[in-house]
Input
Amino acid sequence: MADRDTRTVRGDAVPGRRIDFYDDPNAPKATTMVPSVNVVVENDKGEILLIQRSDNDNWALPGGAIDIGESLTQAAIREVQEETGITCEITGLVGIYTDPKHIILYTSNNEARQEFSIVLTARPIAGHPTPSAESLRVQWVNPANAGRYNMDNSMRLRLEDCNVPANFPYLR
Output
């Protein structure tokens, strides 16, 4: 599972955990919907940037909530920089994911969110993979090897969508 450029840094402890539920009768009822962004950063070698999340140990695309006062692309660039140490340039749109069957529970405040993620594509323009308080590890990964990494099914779907040519964004 070791592609290249792996470094481990624990950083500050992240309070609480993130638990993903999909079509689960035991899932909590969603109480919020927070617009968020994930970014598929692809380097010149065709590798994609993945993080190992510190709140659930799963691998994922970098990303997070869009803050009030910032645009979608500003949030995407900020989240990639914060979680990975990579500065990126946004290049496109993969899709919008709002499946009401996907509930995300944050145990720090018992917030239960319905999925609402906009997935963009980007290219790196500066920086080196560097873990943060939100990412235990940051790696450039060959997309053909991404299936070897432990990740939530919703994240796996986003990666699959990115690898299938489409003439329009995915709306899921």
About this structure: Residues 105 and 111 are 6 Å apart (CA to CA). The first helix runs from residue 72 to 84. The chain is about 15% helix and 40% strand. The longest strand covers residues 86-97.
